[in-house]
Amino acid sequence: MPITLKAEALAKTYKRKLRKPGLGAAFRGLFSSEEEAVHAVSELSFALERGERVGLIGENGAGKSTTLKMLTGILVPTSGKLEVLGLDPFRQRRQLAAQIGVVFGQRPQLLWDIPVQETLSLLRTMYRIPKSVFDVTYAQAVERLELGPLLPVAVRKLSLGQRMRCDLAASLLHAPKIAFLDEPTIGLDVSVKEQVREYIRDMQARFETTLLLTTHDLKDITETCDRLLLLDRGKLLFDGSMKEFERRFATKRRIVLELERPVSDAVSKELAKEMLELGAELQECRGHRAVVVYERDGAAPLLTQRLLSRLPVSDIVLEKADIDSMVAGIYRRSAGHAESKVA
Amino acid sequence: MTPSNASRLAELDTLRALFVRAVRASFAYKPALLLSMLSAGFAYLIPMLVWRHIYAARQQAQPISAQALFPYLLIAGCLNFAFAMNVEARIGQRIRLGLIATDLLRPVDFQLAQLAQALSDGLFNLLLVLPILALAFAFWGPAALPHGGAALAAFALSVLLSFVILFAVSFIFVQASFVTYSGYGVFVARNALQQTFSGLSAPLVLFPPGLRAVSEWLPFRHTIHTPAAIYLGWLSGAAVLRALAEQALWAGGLLMLGRYLLKRALLRFEIQGG
Asked: Which end is more exposed in chain B, N or C (fewer Cβ atoms within 10 Å of the end residue's Cβ)?
């Protein structure tokens, strides 16, 4: 597959003014001010192939939005090399804009005071969308995102969920080669999120769009992406497939047991000791519930057998760690590492 | 202290805190604030100089009659109203809130897109001005009418060029918003210069010689004085063509300068918000 986007040692450093509290400080600030350098992105290198579906995740302030701004050409990098669809995003911003679609979840893209239909019609002219493409993308957007009743309504009258659906439709109307979606499901309820994900998947598959999506809702990633980029304090912590991510970070598994009746403390203590010998941990054994956590591959059958023989089990569930807990664990470890370095 | 007094004091404390935060928010855009202060002083000083000059010259022969002055002031006022295009306020607001990102992500020339928007503002304002013009015709009769068909055609072209000049000047000033992150101070500065040197408050012929010389070197006179002078027949023949050519040159040059400055501004611009 051809490379559509290539970033090499990309970096962005901002200067941020430090403001002290109080009225006196505000007056003094007129004559002097302090600044600090913020390294929003450092030494970021990765490439995307045509049609790839990639999730970009990271904590608040990790550098996700800054990265997207540089990739789309609206922010000039401090250093590094960047090529998107064979273009220099900053110097050839307009040419690039014609070929990409962008959603900034927190910035409305539609014209505020006119009906949605008018903006979509304007975009058709602006992007010179061929009729054959427009007929498909427009119909898909109206049907999949249920835009019909919203088309004659002024954008300012729409709810957040309605506006986000319209924004997404507007950004994919010209069947872009790359779609940069920055938090496309922010503030949406569960059913609208599902609708949005389904639409993104459909459009991506239909036009073989390269997808780069940032989000804090990791379900967006698991349901629409095959590859993950994990940013932490502006640096790339992980770049690989979702399977590779799970292999590396989803090490902990759980056996959750439902008990017919509570067991005595003595039984519980004995079981805890036994589990430790088998390389597992009895995390909880209270009332009608017991939870065992283990890491070793292939340990489940033996552990299950032992638990069934020791406890009055009425039901049993084996769970893998979900992506939220994996990512939270990575952030915690990374923060701990940074603190220990400072110390 | 009684409970009601304590409650009032707490409310006063809240109001004080609100006031402090509001002042801090205003001071957050320091260059814009300083620019506004300078511009405000300038805007009040220059008209004072003009009117002092007019009163000092009262005993001499007047360079312009009252009969000619009032239609001029009317046309100038109407043009000024129609030219209120809010370029600085609109772009400044979008820069401050980070919404400019969506404008820059369109496959369209940013400057020309803004010109199209400004033209729609101008057209809207022009419609609002028409009833005032109709009243003026009723009141002054022939004195308020254009000086012939050719003057009317030249006036229409001149108004269009004036509009482009004013837009281009505003666009140049708005580049400062990419540094100050506020459109207000920039608007006040541009507005002060434009209102002073365009001939809005008085025809340039009434200006003190020093100020008149300065206005000759600036583009602002072409936004109000030139179209008004064409409309009223103060310019004719070759002088009209020369004025139109000057306007076209200013318009083209200023648009080019604005494009260059935008490129420079975007190099150091940081879009606000995550």
From this structure: N
pLDDT at A342: 44
Residue B144 vs residues A267, B137, B193: alpha-carbon distances, Å: 105, 6, 27
Q: Is residue B214 part of a domain?
A: yes
Q: pLDDT confidence of B34, banded at 50, 70, 90?
A: low
Once rounded to an integer, what is the mean pLDDT over residues B182-186? 70
pLDDT in tens, B129-154: 777 777 777 776 766 677 778 888 99
In angstroms, the CA A230 to CA A239 distance is 7
Beta bridge partners of A319: A254
Q: How close, in Å, is residue B214 to chain A by CA atoms?
A: 32
Can you give the pLDDT at residue B43? Answer: 55
* Angle (CA) B50 B54 B58, round 5°: 170
User: Is B274 inside any structural domain?
Assistant: no
Instruction: Select, from the ranges A65-69, B24-28, B207-211, the one with the highest average predicted confidence (pLDDT).
Output: A65-69
- Does residue B19 sit in the same domain as residue B85? no
pTM, to two decimals:
0.79
Question: What pLDDT, in 10s, does the model give residues A206-221?
Answer: 999 999 999 888 889 9
The correct answer on CATH 3.40.50.720 for the domain covering A252-320 is no
Contact B109 A75 (CB under 8 A): no
- Judged by CB atoms closer than 8 Å, whether chains meet at A98 and B107 is answered as yes
A67: tokens are: 């990265």
Verify that B139 and B112 share a domain, yes or no. yes
Under a CB-based contact definition with an 8 Å cutoff, are residues A252 and A293 in contact?
A: yes
Other CB atoms within a 10 A radius of the CB of residue A293 amount to 17
On whether both B136 and B250 belong to a single domain, the answer is: yes
pLDDT at B27: 63
Burial bucket for residue B237 (CB in 10 Å: 0-12, 13-18, 19+): exposed
Among B33, B102, B112, B120, most A C-beta atoms within 10 A, so best to mutate, is B102
When comparing pLDDT for A283 and A6, which is higher? A6
pLDDT value at residue A298: 76
Domain span at B214? 64-268
Please state whether beta strands A178-182 and A34-49 pair in parallel, antiparallel, or not at all (unpaired): unpaired
Does B53 lie in the same domain as B89? no
A137 pLDDT tier (thresholds 50, 70, 90)? very high
Q: Touching check for B11 and chain A: CB below 8 Å?
A: no
Using a CB-CB cut-off of 8 Å, the residues of chain B touching A14 are: 270
What would the CATH number be for the domain defined by A3-248?
3.40.50.300
Name residues whose C-beta falls within 8 Å of residue A336's C-beta, 6 or more positions apart in sequence. Answer: none
How many domains does chain B fold into?
2
What are the phi and psi torsion angles at A18 (to 5°)? Answer: -100, 125
- pLDDT single digits (tens) A286-295: 999 999 988 8
Cα A232 to Cα A331: distance, rounded to the nearest angstrom:
8
Residues B166 and B32 in one domain: no
Question: Least CA distance to B106: which residue of chain A?
Answer: A97
CA atoms within 13 A on the CB side of B238: 0
